[in-house]
Amino acid sequence: MSGLLAYNIEPLDALYRHFNVVKAGYHAGPIEERFVMTLTTLNASRYPSHCLAVTQTNSPANSPALMLPVCKDLYRRGFDPNLRWPKEDEPPEISDETEDATDLPVTIPPLSDDPIKISLPVHPITVPHLVSLPLVLLFGLGLETDIERLPYRLLPSSVVAEFPAAPAMAEIFAKFPEQQFERYHMYLKGFWGNILSLGLKHKRIMEIVSTAWSVASEARRIRQRQQSGLVPQRR
Question: What is the pLDDT of residues 56-107, one digit of tens each?
Fold first, then answer.
């Protein structure tokens, strides 16, 4: 399974689908050593080995954790391999939960007629930006392979269309309405912070995001100069 983002599937949904598990979303309360997820099929070539319990660095204490499926081997190939995984000698196992199954934080029904639950070792991590992490994982783990489509998830298409002319990209981006500009800028800043924090290895992704962040930073400077009256807006 590849190229789910090309069908406008949200990154969080795509991550669960790549690992063939039902979307779990956020988990409130204490994080246990294992977390149960439901398989969507028994005939897939990829399943998760662990579950990341993710919170954001500036979030309040006891904030719900976003539970994300991940494969340890793929993670070690794509990111800093020094992340210490819990209970490495304990593989995923079939869960024997029955009566408590309805209490699981599952938000969509399983796709198979006879769903199987797996119990995954949990690894709590903290990242600079929670919302952009699923997209980071999709490309960093190699689940999404069309790297050249990544810029369209980070910047407006009209800005990306001017690539590689960074000055033109910044000029166009600077003209976007305030709310839309800030939404893109915040997401891109968080994405950049995440890949630095997690030690992403993929050089092409680093190049793309570095260019996008430089464009966004220059666009912000243009907006600031315009607001101060130093540079007239172009029409």
Answer: 998 988 899 999 999 999 999 999 888 777 655 455 555 554 334 333 333 3
Q: Within the chain, what is the greatest distance between any pair of CA atoms?
A: 67
Kindly report the CA angle at 162 between 156 and 163, in degrees rounded to 5? Answer: 95
Using the structure block, give the residue that is written with the tokens 């101060």. 228
CA distances from 193 to 13, 139, 172 (A): 22, 15, 24
User: Left if phi > 0, otherwise alpha if psi is -120 to 50, otherwise beta: which for 232?
Assistant: beta
75-98 CB burial, b ≥16 within 10 A, e <16:
beebbeeeeeeeeeeeebeebeee
Contacts of residue 33, Cβ cutoff 8 Å, sequence gap at least 6? 86, 87, 121, 122
What does the alpha-carbon distance between residue 192 and residue 206 come to, in Å, rounded to a whole number?
9
Q: How many whole angstroms separate alpha carbon 179 and alpha carbon 183?
A: 6
Residue 196 neighbours by CB under 8 Å, 6+ apart:
none
Query: Would you say 72 and 85 are in contact if contact means Cβ atoms under 8 Å apart?
Result: yes
Which pTM value belongs to this model?
0.84
Query: Cβ(68)–Cβ(15) under 8 Å?
Result: yes
Sign of CA dihedral 68, 72, 78, 79: positive
